[in-house]
């Protein structure tokens, strides 16, 4: 006899794997939080050319000891196997494990048993158990569910739960509600023995703030007891009393939590701390999960942290400190939360089906991969452990044709009046969607003879599938459609003056934007499970063709192409006859051009507006050549747009940012180049004002700080006389070492000193009562900052003999 009973209704808040079950934490509508145990174990898949070889594998004693159970299933081994009217499913061995900790070792043992390349092919190995569970059960974080408990009178085993969508929520919803979570943030005040963040420093005080979703502060207080032990115990008590759902930190992964845990261990109260930090009460599980942080010899930078390269920049990712039953979000390690708040993080977590804590720390590529994996799972497609998709062979002449990237119309450096800008809307993701570009759709076997599926310029090399949609475009369709809908809703909220919903929709669409921004690059990433360099090349070929067509259409409409890069184009009317046109006639010309571009290319393009004036900068190395990504200008409505100049750089001291912004604000009031040349004396007066501030030392040292991201670890830099090496040496000499991807902050003290160690000082060593900086060097940089936005206007002034 089986009874079905609805036990609760709430949001899937946290999820993690524990031995042979998945732990689900549900945030009920009434505010309570409940823990559920869902019996489940992860699986991996193995294929081979013969079923008999899979049977032999199961019987191998080196394998059977790690397997809970096995079964044979029929799956698609490759996405390209999914052919209309001809489904090629392979016999697959599903191995279910008793504990996820054995997955990687089991996969390696099976790999070693292979007697030839491709003998045993492994799938779904490196997907987290939590993600696999969400795919398999078709669940998503922060989904609103009815939890139905299935009770059997014939069995006394652990309760079985059925999780079903509430009628008010589903994965396609745009109006889903993020529950009113309880938040807490804290800060540690420690006894500092050096500039290094040392785990041995005693904790003197702990500051706590508890607040709600809308940043409404509930409590704000500090804990400072007679000794460190009592302070930590009181902190643990307050965590338990306040019972936050989400703990927000700045540097919680890299230092705050490791420091707190280390000091608790030194006082022999780590168990009490862990039990209160988490809602999970299994202390053995918590200690096991935090074993990396329990090593007494550990240093703040010695954990299992990683440095990685993304788009040419090196980033540092510390070992995460996860909580169980609560969520820990480290703002320093989560740019999605930092930029788009909980709404953006919730959208990313739901759409990509990644638990909140993991999503907050994941790269966008990892989130995008999870969306690919989910769609592959829905289609019964296996996810390869080690992708082996090879690049299609090309001759030398073909390599020259394909290896071009995006198209660029080089501008002539200088200042221009009345220039219009058009930008294609999410061009690359839309090309991938509309042209069906994916690793599994390039040169498919089913559409080889078709004639309307070739790639521009590369017709002899590539064709695209017309019978089935690839994993990549299928996934991007979800993101593109959702973002477009959120933008529509945002604009509607603006017209209704609904600030709350406007911000909500804006944060969600911006989070989705990051997926679209990275989707093209990830298509050519060597480790992408569903990426392929040929797919990357194909997208570039279509983009070049589209930009070339756009330029020709613009020219037919009587425009000159001033500049163009990848998916944007800047144009001006030939002979600048715009001056003789009415505002209505001028606007009509641009509307007609936009319409023709969209009709002839098939892609949506945005008319960004007309610049009153715009400057395309020159290369710093060769002034006769353009700097492709460095320009600034002012639209007719007064909006300032700047790209690549000092104000936009993250390493520029605030002094120069304020200076350049003040210059741009003055310049934005003028209608053309001629008017700006007349206002140069006003700009010069601002320049002199900042010269005086620097010379009279009337500047806060915080406005003089340079910030540089390290491309290597401290000990990997060559012994060269650079400013950065000067700062690193001083930090190292004072006991602080940095990993690749971390940042240094410093002030220039004596740029031209013979001893390079005297040229700058890291902010950690600054004496605020005796600030010294190099006036000469800062004046030189001020001049460079001034010239960067004014030099082309000085060149417009007539010169007389």
UniProtKB/TrEMBL annotation:
The protein, known as: DNA-directed DNA polymerase
EC number(s) recorded for this UniProt protein: 2.7.7.7
Gene3D superfamilies assigned: DNA polymerase family B, C-terminal domain (1.10.132.60), Helix hairpin bin (1.10.287.690), Palm domain of DNA polymerase (3.90.1600.10), Ribonuclease H-like superfamily/Ribonuclease H (3.30.420.10)
Positions in coiled-coil regions: none
Residue span(s) of domain DNA-directed DNA polymerase family B multifunctional: 403-784
Example of a GO biological process term: DNA-templated DNA replication
One GO MF term attached to the UniProt entry: nucleotide binding
PANTHER family per record: DNA POLYMERASE CATALYTIC SUBUNIT, DNA POLYMERASE DELTA CATALYTIC SUBUNIT
Classification via SUPFAM superfamilies: DNA/RNA polymerases, Ribonuclease H-like
Keywords: DNA-binding, DNA-directed DNA polymerase, Nucleotidyltransferase, Transferase
InterPro entries linked: DNA-dir_DNA_pol_B (IPR006172), DNA-dir_DNA_pol_B_exonuc (IPR006133), DNA-dir_DNA_pol_B_multi_dom (IPR006134), DNA/RNA_pol_sf (IPR043502), DNA_pol_B_thumb (IPR042087), DNA_pol_palm_dom_sf (IPR023211), DNA_pol_type-B (IPR050240), RNaseH-like_sf (IPR012337)
Organism (species): Candidatus Nitrosocosmicus oleophilus
Reactions listed under catalytic activity: DNA(n) + a 2'-deoxyribonucleoside 5'-triphosphate = DNA(n+1) + diphosphate
Membership in a protein family: Belongs to the DNA polymerase type-B family.
Domain (DNA-directed DNA polymerase family B exonuclease) ranges: 121-284
